[in-house]
Design brief:
The chain is of the alpha+beta class. The protein has 15 helices and 4 strands. The two termini are 33 Å apart.
Amino acid sequence: MKKTKRILAAVLTIVLFASMLSGCGKKELDAAKAVDAYLRAGTKGEFDDYAEMVGEDKEELKKEYDERLDKATAMFDEIKSLGVDLGDDFIGEVKNLLASVKYEVVGAQKEGDGYLVDVDVSPSDAMNLFIKNVLQAAKDANDLDAIGDALVQALRDAIAQQSYGEAKRYQVHLDYNKDEKMYEINESDIADLSADFFDLDVDIEELLSQMYTPSGTVYDNPYLNWTMEDWNAASEDEKTQCCLAMVQEMQGLSDEDMAALDVNDASVQAAIQQIKDGVDLSYKSGMDISIGDYVELAKNQLQ
Protein backbone atom coordinates (compact mmCIF):
# COMPACT_ATOMS: atom_id res chain seq x y z
CA MET A 1 0.00 0.00 0.00
CA LYS A 2 2.80 2.43 0.86
CA LYS A 3 4.55 1.59 -2.41
CA THR A 4 1.35 2.29 -4.32
CA LYS A 5 0.96 5.64 -2.59
CA ARG A 6 4.55 6.59 -3.47
CA ILE A 7 3.87 5.71 -7.11
CA LEU A 8 0.71 7.83 -7.10
CA ALA A 9 2.59 10.76 -5.56
CA ALA A 10 5.28 10.51 -8.24
CA VAL A 11 2.67 10.46 -10.99
CA LEU A 12 0.92 13.51 -9.55
CA THR A 13 4.22 15.37 -9.38
CA ILE A 14 4.86 14.62 -13.06
CA VAL A 15 1.40 15.78 -14.05
CA LEU A 16 1.26 18.92 -12.00
CA PHE A 17 4.67 20.39 -11.72
CA ALA A 18 7.45 18.86 -13.82
CA SER A 19 9.41 21.46 -15.79
CA MET A 20 7.30 24.37 -14.48
CA LEU A 21 9.15 26.76 -12.19
CA SER A 22 7.41 29.89 -11.02
CA GLY A 23 9.45 33.01 -11.60
CA CYS A 24 8.99 36.74 -11.45
CA GLY A 25 11.48 39.47 -12.31
CA LYS A 26 10.22 41.79 -9.60
CA LYS A 27 12.08 41.88 -6.29
CA GLU A 28 8.73 42.04 -4.47
CA LEU A 29 5.63 40.12 -5.44
CA ASP A 30 2.31 38.88 -4.13
CA ALA A 31 3.63 35.48 -3.07
CA ALA A 32 0.24 34.00 -2.16
CA LYS A 33 -1.18 35.01 -5.53
CA ALA A 34 1.86 33.58 -7.32
CA VAL A 35 1.55 30.16 -5.67
CA ASP A 36 -2.19 30.11 -6.28
CA ALA A 37 -1.66 30.91 -9.97
CA TYR A 38 0.94 28.16 -10.17
CA LEU A 39 -1.33 25.57 -8.56
CA ARG A 40 -4.33 26.56 -10.68
CA ALA A 41 -2.23 26.16 -13.82
CA GLY A 42 -1.06 22.70 -12.78
CA THR A 43 -4.34 21.32 -11.47
CA LYS A 44 -7.24 23.16 -13.04
CA GLY A 45 -5.58 24.06 -16.35
CA GLU A 46 -6.15 27.79 -15.77
CA PHE A 47 -3.15 29.53 -17.30
CA ASP A 48 -4.07 33.23 -17.61
CA ASP A 49 -2.61 34.43 -14.29
CA TYR A 50 0.38 32.12 -14.41
CA ALA A 51 1.26 33.09 -18.00
CA GLU A 52 1.16 36.76 -17.03
CA MET A 53 3.27 36.12 -13.96
CA VAL A 54 6.09 34.31 -15.79
CA GLY A 55 5.79 36.20 -19.06
CA GLU A 56 5.11 33.12 -21.17
CA ASP A 57 2.56 32.36 -23.86
CA LYS A 58 -0.61 30.79 -22.47
CA GLU A 59 -0.93 28.34 -25.36
CA GLU A 60 2.64 27.12 -24.86
CA LEU A 61 1.95 26.52 -21.18
CA LYS A 62 -1.18 24.58 -22.09
CA LYS A 63 0.85 22.49 -24.54
CA GLU A 64 3.41 21.67 -21.83
CA TYR A 65 0.59 20.74 -19.46
CA ASP A 66 -0.92 18.33 -22.01
CA GLU A 67 2.50 16.78 -22.68
CA ARG A 68 3.06 16.20 -18.97
CA LEU A 69 -0.38 14.64 -18.72
CA ASP A 70 0.45 12.24 -21.55
CA LYS A 71 3.70 11.35 -19.80
CA ALA A 72 1.97 10.63 -16.51
CA THR A 73 -0.76 8.47 -18.05
CA ALA A 74 1.96 6.33 -19.65
CA MET A 75 1.54 4.28 -16.46
CA PHE A 76 -1.36 2.68 -18.34
CA ASP A 77 0.77 1.62 -21.32
CA GLU A 78 0.80 -1.98 -20.12
CA ILE A 79 -2.98 -2.01 -20.24
CA LYS A 80 -2.98 -0.41 -23.68
CA SER A 81 -0.57 -3.07 -24.93
CA LEU A 82 -3.27 -5.67 -24.33
CA GLY A 83 -5.54 -3.92 -26.80
CA VAL A 84 -7.52 -1.94 -24.24
CA ASP A 85 -8.72 1.34 -25.75
CA LEU A 86 -8.84 4.07 -23.11
CA GLY A 87 -9.75 6.73 -25.65
CA ASP A 88 -9.81 10.50 -25.27
CA ASP A 89 -12.49 10.24 -22.59
CA PHE A 90 -9.95 8.87 -20.11
CA ILE A 91 -7.59 11.84 -20.51
CA GLY A 92 -10.57 14.13 -20.11
CA GLU A 93 -11.55 12.46 -16.85
CA VAL A 94 -7.97 12.68 -15.57
CA LYS A 95 -8.16 16.43 -16.18
CA ASN A 96 -11.46 16.53 -14.30
CA LEU A 97 -9.82 14.63 -11.45
CA LEU A 98 -6.99 17.15 -11.22
CA ALA A 99 -9.43 20.04 -11.41
CA SER A 100 -11.31 18.60 -8.43
CA VAL A 101 -8.39 18.87 -5.98
CA LYS A 102 -9.20 20.97 -2.94
CA TYR A 103 -6.67 23.42 -1.53
CA GLU A 104 -6.56 26.98 -0.26
CA VAL A 105 -3.65 29.40 -0.25
CA VAL A 106 -4.16 31.04 3.14
CA GLY A 107 -1.27 33.48 3.48
CA ALA A 108 2.38 34.33 2.98
CA GLN A 109 5.21 35.86 4.92
CA LYS A 110 8.61 37.21 4.03
CA GLU A 111 11.56 34.90 4.72
CA GLY A 112 14.96 36.35 3.91
CA ASP A 113 15.02 37.25 0.23
CA GLY A 114 12.12 34.92 -0.42
CA TYR A 115 8.71 34.02 0.92
CA LEU A 116 6.99 31.24 2.83
CA VAL A 117 3.46 30.52 1.62
CA ASP A 118 0.88 28.57 3.65
CA VAL A 119 -1.37 26.19 1.70
CA ASP A 120 -4.15 24.07 3.22
CA VAL A 121 -4.80 20.80 1.37
CA SER A 122 -7.94 18.70 1.91
CA PRO A 123 -7.22 15.14 0.69
CA SER A 124 -9.78 13.49 -1.58
CA ASP A 125 -10.76 9.81 -1.42
CA ALA A 126 -11.31 9.70 -5.21
CA MET A 127 -8.40 7.33 -5.85
CA ASN A 128 -9.62 4.89 -3.21
CA LEU A 129 -13.03 4.84 -4.90
CA PHE A 130 -11.47 4.53 -8.35
CA ILE A 131 -9.29 1.54 -7.45
CA LYS A 132 -12.10 -0.34 -5.71
CA ASN A 133 -14.52 0.28 -8.57
CA VAL A 134 -12.13 -0.48 -11.40
CA LEU A 135 -10.87 -3.76 -9.92
CA GLN A 136 -14.41 -5.04 -9.57
CA ALA A 137 -15.32 -3.75 -13.04
CA ALA A 138 -12.27 -5.47 -14.54
CA LYS A 139 -13.32 -8.73 -12.90
CA ASP A 140 -16.84 -8.42 -14.34
CA ALA A 141 -15.76 -7.26 -17.81
CA ASN A 142 -16.51 -9.57 -20.73
CA ASP A 143 -13.77 -8.33 -23.04
CA LEU A 144 -10.85 -5.91 -23.29
CA ASP A 145 -13.00 -3.14 -24.78
CA ALA A 146 -15.24 -3.39 -21.73
CA ILE A 147 -12.21 -2.96 -19.47
CA GLY A 148 -11.34 0.32 -21.21
CA ASP A 149 -14.88 1.60 -20.76
CA ALA A 150 -14.84 0.39 -17.15
CA LEU A 151 -11.70 2.40 -16.39
CA VAL A 152 -13.25 5.58 -17.70
CA GLN A 153 -16.56 5.03 -15.92
CA ALA A 154 -14.83 4.07 -12.65
CA LEU A 155 -12.85 7.31 -12.71
CA ARG A 156 -15.91 9.36 -13.64
CA ASP A 157 -17.90 7.82 -10.77
CA ALA A 158 -15.03 8.33 -8.31
CA ILE A 159 -14.87 12.04 -9.13
CA ALA A 160 -18.62 12.42 -8.67
CA GLN A 161 -18.68 10.45 -5.39
CA GLN A 162 -15.49 11.73 -3.75
CA SER A 163 -15.35 13.40 -0.37
CA TYR A 164 -12.60 15.41 1.30
CA GLY A 165 -10.80 14.92 4.57
CA GLU A 166 -9.60 17.42 7.13
CA ALA A 167 -7.26 20.06 5.74
CA LYS A 168 -3.55 19.78 6.40
CA ARG A 169 -1.27 22.82 6.21
CA TYR A 170 1.83 22.87 4.03
CA GLN A 171 4.45 25.55 3.61
CA VAL A 172 5.85 26.33 0.19
CA HIS A 173 9.12 28.23 -0.15
CA LEU A 174 9.59 30.83 -2.86
CA ASP A 175 13.33 31.33 -3.13
CA TYR A 176 14.82 34.39 -4.80
CA ASN A 177 17.43 33.53 -7.43
CA LYS A 178 19.76 36.52 -7.43
CA ASP A 179 21.54 35.48 -10.61
CA GLU A 180 18.33 35.05 -12.61
CA LYS A 181 16.55 37.83 -10.69
CA MET A 182 13.46 35.69 -10.30
CA TYR A 183 11.58 33.67 -7.73
CA GLU A 184 11.44 29.90 -7.89
CA ILE A 185 8.97 27.59 -6.17
CA ASN A 186 10.66 24.88 -4.13
CA GLU A 187 9.98 21.61 -5.97
CA SER A 188 10.35 19.44 -2.86
CA ASP A 189 7.65 21.44 -1.08
CA ILE A 190 5.36 21.05 -4.07
CA ALA A 191 5.99 17.29 -4.21
CA ASP A 192 5.04 16.95 -0.53
CA LEU A 193 1.93 19.03 -1.02
CA SER A 194 0.75 17.26 -4.17
CA ALA A 195 1.17 13.84 -2.55
CA ASP A 196 -1.69 14.76 -0.20
CA PHE A 197 -4.19 15.87 -2.85
CA PHE A 198 -5.48 12.31 -2.94
CA ASP A 199 -5.57 9.95 0.00
CA LEU A 200 -4.77 6.33 -0.77
CA ASP A 201 -5.42 3.74 1.90
CA VAL A 202 -6.64 0.91 -0.33
CA ASP A 203 -4.50 -2.21 -0.12
CA ILE A 204 -4.60 -3.37 -3.74
CA GLU A 205 -3.04 -6.74 -3.01
CA GLU A 206 -5.62 -7.44 -0.32
CA LEU A 207 -8.45 -6.47 -2.66
CA LEU A 208 -7.09 -8.75 -5.36
CA SER A 209 -6.74 -11.62 -2.92
CA GLN A 210 -10.38 -11.18 -1.96
CA MET A 211 -11.51 -11.04 -5.58
CA TYR A 212 -9.33 -13.83 -6.90
CA THR A 213 -9.13 -16.66 -4.37
CA PRO A 214 -7.04 -19.69 -5.40
CA SER A 215 -9.33 -22.67 -6.06
CA GLY A 216 -6.87 -25.32 -4.89
CA THR A 217 -7.54 -27.30 -8.08
CA VAL A 218 -4.71 -29.55 -9.28
CA TYR A 219 -4.77 -29.52 -13.09
CA ASP A 220 -3.69 -32.37 -15.37
CA ASN A 221 -1.35 -30.14 -17.34
CA PRO A 222 1.57 -29.17 -15.05
CA TYR A 223 1.83 -25.75 -16.68
CA LEU A 224 -1.63 -24.90 -15.38
CA ASN A 225 -0.42 -25.51 -11.82
CA TRP A 226 2.22 -22.81 -12.14
CA THR A 227 2.11 -20.08 -9.50
CA MET A 228 3.27 -16.50 -9.83
CA GLU A 229 6.68 -17.61 -8.57
CA ASP A 230 6.92 -20.30 -11.26
CA TRP A 231 5.91 -17.86 -13.98
CA ASN A 232 8.40 -15.21 -12.93
CA ALA A 233 11.24 -17.77 -12.76
CA ALA A 234 10.50 -19.28 -16.20
CA SER A 235 12.38 -18.58 -19.42
CA GLU A 236 10.61 -17.06 -22.42
CA ASP A 237 10.46 -20.47 -24.13
CA GLU A 238 8.91 -22.02 -21.04
CA LYS A 239 6.37 -19.18 -20.84
CA THR A 240 5.51 -19.84 -24.49
CA GLN A 241 4.77 -23.48 -23.70
CA CYS A 242 2.70 -22.37 -20.72
CA CYS A 243 0.71 -20.01 -22.95
CA LEU A 244 0.06 -22.86 -25.40
CA ALA A 245 -1.26 -24.93 -22.50
CA MET A 246 -3.53 -22.04 -21.60
CA VAL A 247 -4.84 -21.84 -25.18
CA GLN A 248 -5.51 -25.59 -25.24
CA GLU A 249 -7.40 -25.47 -21.95
CA MET A 250 -9.38 -22.37 -22.85
CA GLN A 251 -10.36 -23.58 -26.33
CA GLY A 252 -10.79 -27.24 -25.44
CA LEU A 253 -8.33 -28.31 -28.15
CA SER A 254 -6.94 -31.81 -28.52
CA ASP A 255 -3.26 -32.72 -28.56
CA GLU A 256 -3.60 -33.27 -32.32
CA ASP A 257 -5.03 -29.75 -32.73
CA MET A 258 -2.11 -28.31 -30.81
CA ALA A 259 0.42 -30.32 -32.84
CA ALA A 260 -1.00 -28.79 -36.01
CA LEU A 261 -0.55 -25.25 -34.65
CA ASP A 262 2.28 -23.33 -36.33
CA VAL A 263 3.92 -21.49 -33.44
CA ASN A 264 6.20 -19.68 -35.91
CA ASP A 265 3.25 -17.99 -37.58
CA ALA A 266 3.32 -14.23 -36.93
CA SER A 267 -0.31 -14.07 -35.80
CA VAL A 268 0.20 -16.98 -33.38
CA GLN A 269 3.32 -15.35 -31.95
CA ALA A 270 1.43 -12.09 -31.51
CA ALA A 271 -1.36 -13.91 -29.67
CA ILE A 272 1.14 -15.67 -27.39
CA GLN A 273 2.82 -12.36 -26.59
CA GLN A 274 -0.55 -10.86 -25.74
CA ILE A 275 -1.20 -13.70 -23.31
CA LYS A 276 2.24 -13.21 -21.75
CA ASP A 277 1.56 -9.49 -21.33
CA GLY A 278 -1.78 -10.24 -19.71
CA VAL A 279 -0.29 -12.70 -17.21
CA ASP A 280 2.58 -10.33 -16.44
CA LEU A 281 0.17 -7.47 -15.83
CA SER A 282 -2.05 -9.58 -13.59
CA TYR A 283 0.82 -10.87 -11.48
CA LYS A 284 2.42 -7.42 -11.22
CA SER A 285 -0.91 -6.17 -9.90
CA GLY A 286 -0.73 -8.71 -7.09
CA MET A 287 -3.16 -11.38 -8.32
CA ASP A 288 -1.50 -14.56 -7.02
CA ILE A 289 -3.51 -17.49 -8.40
CA SER A 290 -2.43 -20.47 -10.48
CA ILE A 291 -2.28 -20.31 -14.27
CA GLY A 292 -5.16 -22.78 -14.39
CA ASP A 293 -7.30 -20.56 -12.15
CA TYR A 294 -6.36 -17.63 -14.38
CA VAL A 295 -7.64 -19.56 -17.40
CA GLU A 296 -10.88 -20.43 -15.61
CA LEU A 297 -11.35 -16.80 -14.70
CA ALA A 298 -10.86 -15.78 -18.33
CA LYS A 299 -13.30 -18.46 -19.52
CA ASN A 300 -15.96 -17.24 -17.09
CA GLN A 301 -15.55 -13.66 -18.25
CA LEU A 302 -16.01 -14.68 -21.87
CA GLN A 303 -19.19 -16.68 -21.27
